[in-house]
Design a protein that fits this description.
The structure is a single chain. This protein is an alpha/beta fold. It has five domains: 140 residues; 118 residues, Elongation Factor Tu (Ef-tu), domain 3; 220 residues, P-loop containing nucleotide triphosphate hydrolases (Rossmann fold), CATH 3.40.50; 137 residues, no CATH class; 217 residues, 3-Layer(aba) Sandwich (Rossmann fold), CATH 3.40.50.300. Helix content is 46%, strand content 12%. It is built from 44 helices and 29 strands. Strands 1-7-4-5-6-3-2 form a seven-stranded antiparallel β-sheet. The protein has a seven-stranded parallel β-sheet with strand order 10-11-9-12-13-8-14, with helices on both faces. A seven-stranded parallel β-sheet has the order 21-22-20-23-24-17-25. Helix 38 links the parallel strand 23 and strand 24. The relative contact order is 0.06. The C terminus is likely disordered. The structure holds zinc ion (4 copies). The site of one zinc ion has 8 residues, from loops. It comes from Pisolithus microcarpus 441. This is RNA helicase. Pfam families: AAA_11, AAA_12.
């Protein structure tokens, strides 16, 4: 009775008060003294924690208890030892951590974290900004413990992760731990960027957030077995999840067709791709994330089976535990590019030392720059003595090489510094210097060079440069997929294919490893079967409590049947050793053992009420289950380790072959993905192209222990590396600076860098713009001068100004645009761009001369859709990837052989160039917001892509009045105005009548005033025939300056008419074809007559034949008639003779 009252008090009033206190925003000290007064002396507190341990607290009271406990542990003004001891009890901590309530669990992680930090809790424990550990079950002080894929609790946690601001690298106090802090923070920042995207996708999947569900959703899934691959090709293990029903697309397909669907059909091969991310959801809550292991045979089963691999002990064991109790399991595929993060994160975890850390982390102004261990003096010597020396004989290159002074300095820096930064403004030939450096190192040292580029496209180009400069193909190997066909032979898979011959000992090792693996696998399978089987039996329970709860075990002990007579229970059941525990569980008494001393002594146990009794049993059951899951996880972990050892063993041969290569080329993700293989080949020199576009984490994970030299080639004035989480960017200004490349960071720190100065791309009007805005020392190489003007326009640089408003595309999110969830479009600009491009095509420019650029994916997709009717835009790899991720790219195989105009976002066109750039700036709004177009780097890239013609279309007012970036755009537009480049429309000029100029303000103006690309005058020039005039409106005379006059080649299609040679018919012909020598109608007439004659002849022949037959027939008839007549006559005669005979005997005599 008393106990009940107490429980009521704890669950009610006490919790009310404490909850209020914890929630109230009173000062720390006041709260502190109030709470301390409540718990000390501990009369109330002892009741409270005992009730928690016994499970009599309701959900809210449990929450309050966990919060008070965690509060007490964090007190800095008092000794917390008592509370630490209390919290360490499994009956407290385990219960909190395994609670059903997320809030309670979160307190548990914090408590566990506090307990793990020895002694007094840190004072800034409450500042979550930069203190790692304790937020959820995947938050640790040691970043290497953090599982790369998040746990379910991490995904539901709203707490900000622990991240350092970039300034910690400048803290002189932090020098001692700087390398460790750096690796730690690099990992955390990059992982947070991944989490940002992943969280968004899972929120959409769980319908917490609006958005397009991009992955597949499968309901009613069931875990049926353990997967480990076919016997001869074992893989890491996974769970086999059977779908609740068949995939609708497979309806009606036969077994073979089902398999074929996944193997060959493009829809099937896209479904549930290998290594794609998926989420297991149980009764609406996330159980865990993992990856899909694609097994087509299993997918083709009916119902299909999906193999799901989970990593991370915590996630896995939680998910397995819940598998048992969850009623409805859902499987959701998540379309998040985890594959781009995972290898880099894993590589960071493995890094224990940071090569070149002297330069990367500790360089200060005034430090001397160290030399690499090997200096190519054969080149640097002569070059220092005579910078204008001809390097052709020294480098044995196929073509003559003379360098300008900035190229000489760059080459010397690259060869003489352990770490060198070479800045290459647009068009200055960055990769040429890279190729020269590689060639020098290849010729005069025996070092291995790892070449890393950001895109496959750039990598291919660089490798081709290397081959072009005379490095033998056999010395080069290329990691990663999507090589151009011409470089297919460099692929690392060719090495793999060559295979390896293994010695007998090696085979013995492999066999032993295999045996080991299969042993682990069978343990894993046993554990899984146990997990799937029903509730633990009384025997299992008894065995469990023997050590766990000996008091209870003792109370349930059945006196040894050997000693006594065999007891027989009610209904004649044999009393065995589980008799008493079964009695107790059913709420009964000990029956015939009631008076046994050990039962009597355990009065407390035998008098427990039914509720408490059930709670106790439940506790044992979940303990047992947890044990099974632990065994399973352990067996799985050990099995995976065996598999990893095996694959490493198989990879050894590849490493041997890799060691024979001198140049290893890969993309940044490739470098991380194949990090182990590459590391084994121990490259000495790391050469990074496009280093300004690459995340620092990607560069440092490409370093291996043997790397003793690093050459970074890039440009920190162009676009920064791409990241997903805007909050972490330099632009956001919160100091995390995730997208600041190593290149930029070192340059900003004052690390010496050399800059290539001579640009070979832009005509002077264009380069003048970036010289004024960004590169004051940029020089124009001779070939950029005296180029032809763009035909048909009034200026080579044009800004088409307008004020038509933009519209929004809600389907696409442009994360780079300040984390925006929508993208922008501008329909007016789309129409104008289309007409401008059409006009340029009329001037003779082809799709290989023009590119359309725009900052926004939304505008890109709008342009693409509109252009589709006119031309077939080719999107570059990255853009089509982005669009298909946004779910907008539906029809890619339109086979129309039309002009294809290249179309790209600015960000994805970095590193490329075109004769003419047409840029749609898109933004136009009264609030003057220009989003990420405020970035000087983006404008710089946009301006510097064009060789000969640069055309912008946009609302200048929006850009100039923008709060952020307004100054930049005003500077830029001032330059444009000074040059006379700003127009109220598109300024055309008739090439034939140069005085006829017009500014096209509306899209319709083009049809009205330049329908054929000239002016509105009739062309009137004589065509090739020299007789007839051209019927078009005025148009350009040549498709290019050195091309013949169009009229000299255009066929005259004027229609002519006249009488035919016979003079009977009127004939018509196109002028170019000449007068036909024969008259068609005459020919037809002749034909007709011939046909007629033939017909007549045939008729005549037929008639004659019929006549002949008829006559023959008549003759036959006549003959027949004649013979019949004759016979008749004879008959008559005979009759008459007979008559005469009767009349005269003489006659009768005559007859005889
Ligand atoms: Zn004209
Ligand atoms: Zn003609
Ligand atoms: Zn003409
Ligand atoms: Zn005729």
């Amino acid at each position: 009775m008393r106990s009940d009252l107490r429980t009521e008090f704890l669950n009610g009033l006490a919790s009310n008060v404490l909850e209020f206190l914890l929630r109230a925003e009173m000062g720390g000290d006041v709260l502190n003294s109030v709470i301390v007064n409540i718990v000390d002396p501990p009369i109330f507190w002892n009741e409270f924690h005992r009730a928690f341990e016994n499970g009599t607290l309701n959900e809210r009271a449990q929450r309050v208890f966990a919060k008070v406990l965690s509060y007490l542990l964090r007190m800095t003004s008092r000794d917390t030892t008592t509370y630490r001891n209390l919290a360490s009890r499994p009956s407290i901590l385990d219960k909190i951590i395994n609670s059903d309530q997320q809030e309670v669990r979160e307190e548990g992680y914090l408590i566990k974290h506090i307990l793990s930090t020895n002694g007094v809790a840190s004072t800034n424990m409450a500042d979550f900004d930069f203190v790692p550990g304790g937020r959820h079950d995947n938050d640790f002080v040691d970043f290497r413990k953090i599982a790369i894929l998040p746990t379910a609790d991490e995904l539901s946690s709203n707490k900000n992760p622990a991240l350092r601001r970039a300034s910690y690298l400048d803290d002189p106090e932090g020098k001692k731990t700087r390398v460790a802090d750096y690796l730690d923070n690099t990992f955390r920042l990059l992982r947070d960027d991944m989490m940002h995207e992943l969280k968004e996708d899972t929120d959409i999947a769980l319908k917490k957030k609006q958005g397009r569900q991009r992955g597949l959703v499968i309901n009613g899934i069931k875990a049926v077995d353990i997967y480990a691959g076919p016997e001869n090709r074992r893989t890491r293990w996974g769970l086999m999840l059977q779908c609740g029903s068949d995939f609708p697309v497979l309806k009606g397909l036969q077994e073979e067709d089902r398999k074929r669907f996944f193997r060959d059909d493009h829809r099937g091969s896209r479904m549930l791709r290998h290594q794609s991310l998926a989420c297991l959801i149980g009764d609406g809550a996330i159980l865990g994330l993992g990856t899909i292991h694609r097994d087509e045979e299993l997918l083709a089963e009916k119902p299909p089976i999906i193999v799901f691999q989970m990593e991370g002990q915590i996630s896995l064991s939680k998910a397995l535990l819940q598998l048992k109790t969850t009623k409805h399991l859902r499987f959701i595929q998540i379309d998040c590019a985890v594959f781009a993060f995972e290898p880099v994160l894993k590589a960071l975890k493995r890094m224990r030392v940071l090569p070149l850390s002297e330069e990367i982390l500790f360089w200060e102004d005034g430090n001397e720059i160290a030399s690499p261990p090997v200096v190519v003096t054969r080149i640097t010597g002569p070059l220092t003595r005579n910078p204008s020396i001809d390097l052709t004989p020294l480098l044995q290159t196929p073509n003559t090489i003379t360098l300008d002074s900035s190229q000489v300095t760059s080459l010397l820096a690259g060869l003489e510094q352990r770490v060198s930064l070479i800045q290459g403004p647009p068009g200055t030939g960055k990769s040429f210097i890279g190729a020269l450096l590689a060639k020098a190192l290849h010729m005069y040292t025996s070092q291995t060079i790892l070449v890393v580029c950001y895109t496959n496209h750039a990598l291919d180009q660089f490798l081709e440069d290397l081959i072009g400069i005379g490095i033998p193909r056999e010395d080069i190997v290329r990691f990663g997929s999507r090589a151009k066909p011409a470089l297919e032979d460099l692929g690392v898979h060719n090495l793999r294919r060559q295979g390896a011959r293994r010695s007998e000992t090696e085979w013995a090792v492999i066999d032993e490893m295999k045996d080991n693996a299969s042993l682990r696998l069978s343990k894993l399978q046993v554990s899984f079967t146990t997990l799937l089987s029903s509730q633990p039996s009384p025997e299992t329970l008894l065995a469990h409590i023997e050590s766990k709860d000996p008091e209870f075990f003792h109370a349930f002990r059945v006196p040894d049947p050997e000693d006594m007579m065999r007891f027989v229970g009610r209904k004649g059941k044999v009393v065995d050793e589980t008799f008493l525990i079964r009695q107790w569980m059913q709420g009964g008494d000990a029956r015939m053992f009631k008076y046994e001393p050990h039962v009597q002594a355990a009065h407390r146990i035998w008098s427990m009420d039914k509720n408490r009794c059930q709670l106790k049993v439940e506790e044992w059951r979940s303990d047992i289950l947890r044990g099974v899951v632990e065994d399973l996880c352990m067996a799985g972990e050990l099995y995976n380790r065996c598999q990893d050892d095996l694959s490493r063993q198989f990879g050894k041969a590849l490493v041997e072959q890799l060691r024979t290569k001198r140049i290893i080329g890969c993309t940044t993700t490739g470098a991380a993905k194949f990090a182990e293989d590459i590391r084994a080949a121990s490259p000495d020199v790391l050469l990074v192209e496009e280093a300004g576009e690459i995340l620092e984490s990607h560069v440092i994970t490409a370093l291996s222990r043997t790397t003793s030299q690093m050459i970074l080639i890039g440009d920190h004035k162009q676009l920064r590396p791409k990241v997903k989480n805007y909050a972490l960017t330099v632009e956001k200004g919160e100091g995390y600076d995730l997208n600041r490349s190593l290149f930029e960071r070192l340059v900003l720190k004052g690390f010496p860098h050399v800059t290539l100065s001579s640009q070979h791309r832009m005509r002077p009007e264009i380069s003048a713009l970036i010289r004024a805005l960004t590169y004051p020392d940029l020089k124009d190489a001779p070939e950029t001068k005296n180029r032809d003007n763009i035909r048909g326009v009034q200026s080579n640089v044009i800004f088409v100004n307008h004020n038509h408003p933009e519209d929004e595309d809600k389907r696409i999110s442009d994360g780079a645009d300040g984390g925006s969830t929508t993208s922008k479009q501008n329909t007016h600009e789309v129409k104008m761009v289309l007409r401008i491009v059409r006009y340029l095509v009329q001037q003779g420019y082809g799709s290989d001369n023009i590119v359309i650029l725009t900052p926004y994916l939304g505008q890109l997709s709008h342009l693409r859709d509109t252009l589709k009717n006119e031309t077939d835009p080719i999107l570059n790899d990255l853009d089509s990837g982005d669009l298909s991720r946004a779910g907008l790219l539906t029809d890619t195989n339109s086979e129309k052989k039309k002009t294809r105009i290249r179309l790209a976002t600015i960000d994805n066109y970095q590193g490329e160039e075109s004769d003419i750039v047409v840029a749609s700036l898109c933004r136009s709004n009264p609030s003057n917001s220009i989003g990420f177009m405020n970035s000087p780097e983006r404008l710089n890239v946009l301006i510097s892509r064009a060789r000969n013609g640069l055309i912008f279309i946009g609302n200048s007012a929006t850009f100039e009045r923008s709060k952020k970036g307004g100054k930049l755009w005003t500077d830029f537009l001032d330059l444009m105005r000074k040059g006379g480049y700003v127009f109220g429309g598109f300024p055309v000029k008739c090439e034939k009548h140069p005085n006829k100029r017009r500014v096209m303000e509306q899209p319709e103006d083009f049809d009205a005033y330049a329908p054929n690309g000239g002016c509105t005058e009739p062309c009137g020039m004589l065509l090739k025939c020299n007789v007839h005039p051209c019927a078009l409106k005025c148009h350009p005379l040549r498709t290019a300056p050195n091309q013949p006059n169009i009229h000299a080649t255009t066929l005259c299609t004027t229609l002519l008419r006249g009488k035919c040679s016979v003079g009977a018919h009127t004939i018509t012909w196109q002028c170019y074809a000449g007068r036909p020598s024969t008259c068609m109608r005459c020919r037809i007439e002749k034909q007709r007559l011939k046909q007629l004659a033939k017909h007549d002849l045939k008729l005549k022949e037929e008639r004659e034949a019929a006549q002949r037959e008829h006559e023959l027939h008549m003759l036959e008839l006549e003959a027949k008639l004649r013979s019949e007549r004759k016979a008749y006559e004879e008959l008559q005669r005979a009759e008459e003779e007979q008559k005469q005979k009767v009349e005269s005997p003489a006659a009768s005599c005559m007859i005889q």
